[in-house]
Specification:
single chain, 378 residues, mainly alpha, globular
Amino acid sequence: MVRVLGNFDIAEEVVQDSLVAALEKWPAQGIPDNPGAWLMTTARRRAIDALRRDRRYAEKVALLERSTLPGETREADDRLRLIFTCCHPALAPEAQVALTLRAVAGFTTEEIAAAFLVSEPTMAQRIVRAKRKIVAANIPYRVPAAAELPARLDAVLAVLYLMFNEGYLSRGSAAASRRDLAEDAVWLGALMVRLMPDQPEALGLLALMRLHLARAAARFDGAGEMVLLADQDRSLWDHEAIADALRTLNRAAAMSSPGPYQLQAAIAAVHSEAASWEATDWRQIVGLYDLLLDLNDTPVIRLNRAVAVAHLNGPQVALGEVNDLAIALSGYHLFWATRAELLDDIGETALAREAWQRALELCANPAERALLRRKLSG
């Protein structure tokens, strides 16, 4: 619909209306033999009705009335086109990522704002401006030529990274994780690698996502409670998938062009290769974080490095580094949870309890909240 209409807002509206119509009619009438074609036909009719009310769109109405819009389009092709349309260099980088998360991954504005640590109204304005820019600049709906791909790679990989993170551990309150979303990000990542096989960061991100997903079976117990990495049953990990991800990471490393996703994947690989929590090579992990900070110095990465420092040099040293991030990460629940853990380790139980409470106030994920409540109860 975006391709035919050239307008994100109208396309989004008619597709949503079609999905609502399906939810209303299919329970009574049964699911059609070709659900995609049914949805496409319904969306087309609703688009014609919407556009007829505006004379500026007379040409689009005529096009829609003549078209058949087959429902059997290849999903991979259409989703890649939509990703690259949203990630056009004419848009600001943060707008590229936000719009793609909205249009391709189906994130709510609230979820995208949480991922960027900004307010929901700020993110809503960013998305609206991006949609208008696509229409005004007549940005084409297509996979770009090979020479144009590298300029859009960073934004596309950022989208897949955020999409996977939301699926792996949701920021919302509805579910602890969204396995389908995480697997969707991995699938799209594999498509990107096939499209751009010589891009080491695309390989690095694919390896990173697959390494995390390979450990997913051990992340929650039978009651749905979160199990921290230190306590996970490593026999539940998919070791074949880990080996496959390591081969992908080695393929990226052979290109001798290290980047943030490759380094994050290398950190995940150290955890995945350790026979036990006690056998984890923390010195190597801290070294990898140092390299990562040289390329991408962010407060969240510094926080994650401090966790590794605690295991290498002790909680007191790590606490000093965490306290330096208080202003930058005051609204981030994992800052407070990390600080609480370190305070507990040095015997400051009263201060730790305050930090656990603050982390709980800021956290929406049900499994994380349950874990934080367990920490509070001692």
